[in-house]
Amino acid sequence: FQYLKRFDQGCDLDTFCYEALLVEGSPAECLQLFLLHCGVMDPSWAELRNFTWFLNIQLRDCEASVFCNPDFVQDTLKGF
């Protein structure tokens, strides 16, 4: 949710890191963003769960990768 919210606001996600204990928005806002970005017109709960699970894994791996660390790559991969 933190990434999707900032993505919709046009924020630079290259320098953003997930904050585990930070609660943002309401459950309704969270569901609305998931519905907007999941890519399925009328998703089931299972499809929403799979979307959030996959997105979470990808973002976690991205944050852990040295190649996505802005301090390491500096501006060589801007927007990657």
From TrEMBL:
* PANTHER family given in the database record: E3 UBIQUITIN-PROTEIN LIGASE RNF213 (PTHR22605:SF16), RZ-TYPE DOMAIN-CONTAINING PROTEIN (PTHR22605)
Superkingdom is Eukaryota
InterPro entries tied to this protein? RNF213 (IPR031248)
Q: Which GO terms describe its molecular function?
A: ATP hydrolysis activity; ligase activity; ubiquitin-protein transferase activity
User: What name does UniProt use for this protein?
Assistant: RN213 ligase
The species is Drymodes brunneopygia
Which UniProt key words apply to this protein?
Ligase
| Keyword DNA damage on entry | no
- The gene from which this protein is expressed is Rnf213_2
An example of a Gene Ontology cellular component annotation for this protein is: cytosol
**GO BP terms, alphabetized:** negative regulation of non-canonical Wnt signaling pathway; sprouting angiogenesis; ubiquitin-dependent protein catabolic process
